[in-house]
Amino acid sequence: MSTEAVSAPPALARTRALLDPALRRAVARLDPVNRSISEYHLGWVTADGTPREPAGGKAVRPTVTLLAAEACGAAAETAIPGAVSVELVHNFSLIHDDVMDGDTERRHQPTVWALWGVPAAILTGDALVNLAQEVLLPRDPQASAVLGSAIREMIRGQTEDLAFERRDWVELPECRAMAAGKTGALLSASARIGGLLGGGSAAAVDALGAYGAHVGMAFQLVDDVLGIWGDTSVTGKPVLSDLRARKKSLPVTYVLSAGGSPAQAIADWLAAPEPADGAPETELERIADVLDAAGGRDWALAEADREIGQAVQALDSVPLAEPAREELKALTRFLTHRSA
Amino acid sequence: MSTEAVSAPPALARTRALLDPALRRAVARLDPVNRSISEYHLGWVTADGTPREPAGGKAVRPTVTLLAAEACGAAAETAIPGAVSVELVHNFSLIHDDVMDGDTERRHQPTVWALWGVPAAILTGDALVNLAQEVLLPRDPQASAVLGSAIREMIRGQTEDLAFERRDWVELPECRAMAAGKTGALLSASARIGGLLGGGSAAAVDALGAYGAHVGMAFQLVDDVLGIWGDTSVTGKPVLSDLRARKKSLPVTYVLSAGGSPAQAIADWLAAPEPADGAPETELERIADVLDAAGGRDWALAEADREIGQAVQALDSVPLAEPAREELKALTRFLTHRSA
């Protein structure tokens, strides 16, 4: 995997234009409090409710949904309720995860709980995940069931991630299963729901679901690399942040599972009591070097390439319409070339 | 409204026998962590996972669902997925509300967040509300939409309730609207979902929904009376607990809205800064007396009677099957005669 940056595919801008009005209409169905907190979280207004230059996320999941519908020969418009619902679920998980992880900033802004407290963040997250189903259900109950099972998997993934924090050792297959739930499930559902709303065949919907699952795993592998070796200006996170949090990420569990003296060094570090004022920077740099020398970084990037290959293979395994199929492929390159 | 206790209607025991196996099967679909926390919360196991003599709630909402299906001429069994889903939503709200309210005990046991922390409580609540829709959706998407709109109303109600805590004055209509969301919406949906699954006519389903909404409001009125004047041995809450929390409950907002010197006395009390070590018992007793003398208690109990009358009227406004209709009426008497 190369390190050059890949510019944002045109599909992302096209999606935003289709998604935004529908997403705003959906959020407007909430009570005034949860509506305005959601609008802040989505980057549409400042904390006091003043409209601002929108500064939300990349809307990757809704883009996957709309392209998947097009890949099944439908107009992107047919899948808008699906696109809205996956974006709502994604933001539900961000708001609740920020509480659980104690994160006070997201996209350089204070998080919802940091501004309005934990109860408000719990309620706004609850409101968004319920709204997602209220938007999708009348459009297609089958798609709604796919979303429900993805939400269950996301919750399982986040639950395992929190449990791993309290453990000194995590096996690689466990870590993969966690990432498949936490990141893969919603990306897979995003593609599958687009296929369903686009009237795709069962084979096309399954292939799209496989595409999303592989893209999700590739995305997580790259994210884990950036969490250890990433540049703060790119990631927006403090340098070495995942090591500081002792996260049993995929590169870490790979090195642990490979055994030998690097595994022992990492295991000793994880088992040692943490200094009250946090680990010194030099110690974290030493651990990053051990992981790198043991092949943790190269393995993760090679695995991400392999997952992308499988995602592309899934798309090529069934008849799908162009240019949507090519745009779905371009999206994978964008997602996994974030200066990794 | 009299003060004699009314024994539990036989319908509650009959419901438990139908509900429990299906509820246990549903909860078993969750990942192991959220499953065992749910089983603890539902009173099936101790904190270490040991099975115990079940000690859950009264399962009022599922009983309403099953009786509503019978009232539409169906077997109670047809509505089991609905009964399971409303019980799951109820328990989602309890687990999240306990976090928001900082309550450390429920049914004389430590609450989920008190035992496993806030992140675990957030995740288990999320898992239960999603599971509710996963159970109901394949059975009846229309019922699932009714449940989604009830969840939205519950979240609105809880959001308003929290906002009221930070205000010195709440109008009675605002307080009613809050209670309609927080308590009325799910009871109304429970009855409506039972009617839908039981194949009831649109008129029957609407009448059942009205019944549930009125029962919910009556229940909340009685609950608010018990929160001020209730006996700890009956309520399981500390005496004067709602006054201690400065809750703008229905009796309090009634007295505020009625004006005059009692309203002024209550307003002064709410506006005064709270002593750091909490209000002295004598002060709270004085406030309870002011509320009582101003008719707060009598008004609330008369309103509860009026709501019950409307609930019964709704049941009598359409053709419904016996004995289910009578059992639905008996349930209202049980719910509102908890030594109020």
From TrEMBL, chains A, B:
InterPro entries: Isoprenoid_synthase_dom_sf, Polyprenyl_synt, Polyprenyl_synt_CS. GO terms for biological process: isoprenoid biosynthetic process. The keyword Transferase applies. Keywords: Magnesium, Metal-binding, Transferase. GO terms for molecular function: metal ion binding; prenyltransferase activity. Belongs to the FPP/GGPP synthase family. PANTHER family: (2E,6E)-FARNESYL DIPHOSPHATE SYNTHASE (PTHR12001:SF71), GERANYLGERANYL PYROPHOSPHATE SYNTHASE (PTHR12001). This is Polyprenyl synthetase family protein.
